Amino acid sequence: MELLDALHGVVQSSPPDVAGGFSALLEPFIGHSALLILTDDCTDDCTGRPRKTAGEASIIDDVTLVELDAVRRSLTSEPSDPWGRRAVLGGTDRPITAWTASTGALLVLADPELTPAGAADPEATLALVGRLWQLVATSIRQQVAAPSPAHLLDSRPALAERAKLIADLTDAHSTTLESLLGVLRSPTVSAEAARQTATDLAASAMVNLRAVSDRDRSLAQEPVAAAFARLRDDLRPLVRFGDLDVQFVEPPANGPALPGEVAHAGRAIVRGAVLALVEQAGVSRVRVQWDCDGSNLLIQIRDDGAGVLSTDSPGVVPLTARVAALGGTFGVQATAGWGSELTVSLPLDPPSAPLAPATEWGLSPREQGVLALVASGARNKAIAGELLISENTVKFHVANLLRKVGASTRAELASLAR
User: Which PANTHER family does this chain map to (predicted)?
Assistant: First the structure.
């Protein structure tokens, strides 16, 4: 029963908190120095935080997406004893054990060591961890497939920080290697053989560095055409098993790549919008169009219904908070007798100003969630629906936030939070 309670706590936590909770859950069975998670790559579920970690800082601070991706590929290409595996993590070769879920997500335990409880039946311990990981990976998939505004607010700054770090690292190494090449190619150097060898090594290092950067970028971005193709797959059940005619207007095949969380949010918003449209009586056709102007993902969804949809419609209210969390715009235009049209614009670049640290105001976790939604522009009804609480409870939390933050109005509260 304790194990089930602990598992329930893990699957109910937000994706960034999963690693710490799951690490604590597994510790009584398999000791480990670090727990590392790589969620589905851009052929499946890519987000602003595809890597989730817990454990020793010397490992989790330096491990890269490319290293974890190499472990995932090795699980299928190089079958071996789960207790005899090794991998490079954070630039250091170390023992590991690893599992992949049916979603494609990877779990890695660094420096694994069976505890007395786990050592009683090692094979059963492996099987138990595998089943637990399957449940946790499925919960991550479900949360990422329909990201909450709070999750989007967290993932966008993370993506920007990570992209800047990669760019700075690449530039630093490139400058160093280019300087090395310049010295070694100098005519004043007499050791021709040594110069040639060092030149070849440095040139190879530059190629490898670029390859790592390109591979890391591919794990965090998704071509707009590929993202749209996955959207068609998501909506296929509505076409196959219902009477709905879904028409797709595809984006240009050579359109720019989308950040992972923008592609995810776009698909989640379209799914929610289509369901909101088909809940109306008389809707038999929906037209979905994606495009990208280089700065924004542009979405248009139109139906052939009675034209009575509005921003206050039950199926539409939750969508406005998700769009606002990404700094986007959302509009509804309904024409009686001609149908309703939803328009969405999602910026590709993350917001420049993250929320202020909640610790400055002594906020509880629930108050932090409410504050994030208030700052995103969500109203009380949308916040209640997102957090599964009553509107009266939302009003209570907002009143406490106004008092703790020292704001006199809701608008001032949102402004101070940013």
Answer: DNA-BINDING TRANSCRIPTIONAL ACTIVATOR DEVR_DOSR
Q: What residue type is 171 in one-letter code? A: D
245-264 mean pLDDT: 79
Residue 242 DSSP symbol: S
Second-level CATH architecture of 2-145: 2-Layer Sandwich (3.30)
For residue 383, the SS3 value is helix
**Greater model confidence, 279 or 143:** 279
How many Å apart are CA 144 and CA 170, to the nearest integer? Answer: 29
SS (H, E, C) 14-49: CHHHHHHHHHHHHCCCEECCEEEEECCCCCCCCCCC
Which architecture, in CATH terms, is 358-417? Orthogonal Bundle (1.10)
Range with the poorest average pLDDT among 38-47, 196-205, 338-347, 377-386? 38-47
CATH class of segment(s) 222-347 = alpha beta
Neighbour tally for 249: CB within 10 Å = 11
Count CB-CB contacts under 10 A for residue 411.
10
Per the confidence metrics, is the pTM higher than 0.90? no
